[in-house]
Amino acid sequence: AQSVTQPDIHITVSEGASLELRCNYSYGATPYLFWYVQSPGQGLQLLLKYFSGDTLVQGIKGFEAEFKRSQSSFNLRKPSVHWSDAAEYFCAVGRTGNQFYFGTGTSLTVIP
Amino acid sequence: GAGVSQSPSNKVTEKGKDVELRCDPISGHTALYWYRQSLGQGLEFLIYFQGNSAPDKSGLPSDRFSAERTGGSVSTLTIQRTQQEDSAVYLCASEDWGGAETQYFGPGTRLLVL
User: Fold this and answer.
1) Which chain A residue lies closest to B34 (C-alpha atoms)?
2) Does B41 contact A98 at a Cβ distance shorter than 8 Å?
3) Which neighbouring-strand residues pair with A11?
4) How confident is the model over B36-80, as pLDDT tens digits?
5) Distances (CA, A) of B106 to A9, A76, B15, B68, B79
6) Which sign does the torsion angle of CA B31, B37, B43, B45 carry?
7) Residues with pLDDT less than 70, chain A
8) Residue A74 · residue A85 · CB < 8 Å
9) Which of A11, A19, A106, B64 is deepest in the core (most CB within 10 A)?
10) CB-side exposure of A75: number of CA atoms within 13 Å?
């Protein structure tokens, strides 16, 4: 069965520090992989996506993610976190039929 | 252009009442999804509409939940005889089929059943 695991429920980093959010997936074929960000009271915004090709994907707001097939992972990274990055981050895999599968999210707190 | 909009943004209702949640997708997007987001949970797929095809209702949790999409545009999610466990944020997303698998999400409707 398809699934997405985000092992870190909550992460706290200092502003200016680097960030890595983990995502592991279970999928029977080559997956489509996504990272979304949800700010308080907002809908989900797509940060980046991977379909094929270069396994290092660049997204908006300075984020990048690397697809590692051997580890079934698609971790999100940012070299220097800004206070405005505080939000909930969701990893997703799609699609099987009409469905996308979302992880339970990682809440990011940024301290000054 | 305008993004996906949802109304109301917040809804408080009493147990046993019916509620209707509305989603206005991005104009021209042929695909529309409803998800439920409960506290501490990921997004739970509810239903999917694509053009004039029969909707994929496989994610609806019970027969109290139904949805329709009129004219291939606006969608309404109806929950009958609401229960406290229905309290959640209901998110709508639209997608331009063939548009690189990207869903655009609305801000959600936060439903509280007392």
Assistant:
1) A99
2) no
3) A108
4) 998 877 889 999 998 888 898 989 999 999 999 988 799 999 999
5) 24, 23, 26, 17, 19
6) negative
7) 95-98
8) no
9) A106
10) 10
